[in-house]
Design brief:
The protein has about 240 residues and is mostly beta strands. The protein contains no helices and twelve strands. A twelve-stranded antiparallel beta sheet has the order 1-2-3-4-5-6-7-8-9-10-11-12, with no helix packed on it. It starts with 16 loop residues before the first strand and ends in a 5-residue tail after the last strand.
């Protein structure tokens, strides 16, 4: 930095490094595999006067089989990150992720998808564990359609998430299930049925909810439609102190 007028000049330097490597094996084949690794040394500004050094390492890869009728992909990621300097304590983050994705195309209008992810995390200060545990995420989605003159569409979704940390009651689980059925009885008459279920448990507290309904729609003209709908909701919350 040169100061004008007068004052001479000022110099400052800082290390900055980035390394990347990757390899792709059998790229044109259904079972292609790729691996990679990254190493970074950068700086992070938390505010105008607070700058910390960030040293990170990442590596992983993916493989699978991407041809019909059942393509499957498996991927893995490892992350290590150390933050030092500035006005904060040193922080160390370590994380591992494993992901599985699969799908099945039964027809042009019918498809099933499944996904699962396992994540292990550990964040520490010197001598202190701030947060550590594992997370599981799984989801299943299915779409089915049949009938030509009077098409019927059924959509189903289910998901499950569970997080477990180092605390004695540090368990958080959530399950969700959705169903939606659309029917076409005649050219101007259709109906829809839907149902949703959700349950969450966190420590000694549990929350369960259900809702559903059915509707009937009659389209007499483009500008005139009649609809009858019936729906219901049920909710239950439980803890050691109350229900």
């Amino acid at each position: 930095v040169r100061l004008n007028p007068g004052g001479g000049n000022r110099e400052s330097t800082r290390a900055l490094q980035r390394y990347h490597a990757d390899a792709q094996l059998l790229k044109e084949k259904p079972f292609a595999t790729s691996v990679y690794a990254d190493r970074d040394l950068t700086y992070r500004d938390f505010d105008f006067f607070n700058r910390a050094r960030v040293d990170s390492l990442r590596y992983g890869g993916s493989t699978g089989y991407n041809a019909l009728p059942l393509p499957v992909t498996i991927s893995y990621l490892h992350l290590e990150q150390t933050v030092t300097g500035g006005l904060i304590r040193d922080l160390q983050d370590e994380e591992d992720s494993l992901t599985l994705d699969a799908s099945h195309q039964r027809s042009t209008t019918s498809l099933t998808r499944f996904s699962y992810q396992l994540n292990r995390f550990d964040r520490r200060e010197p001598g202190i564990s701030l947060s550590a545990g594992t997370t599981h995420n799984a989801s299943l989605a299915d779409t089915a359609s049949w009938g030509k003159d009077r098409p019927t569409l059924l959509q189903s979704n289910a998901s499950y998430t569970a997080t477990r940390d180092h605390r004695p009651d540090g368990v958080d689980e959530n399950f969700t299930w959705n169903e939606n059925l659309a029917l076409q009885h005649a050219h101007h008459l259709g109906s829809n049925l839907h149902y949703n279920f959700n349950q969450r448990t966190y420590g000694q507290v549990s929350d369960r909810g259900q809702n559903g309904g059915v509707s009937l729609t009659h389209q007499l003209y483009d500008s005139l439609a009649s609809r009858l709908q019936i729906s219901g909701v049920a909710q239950n919350l439980h803890s050691p102190a109350s229900t």
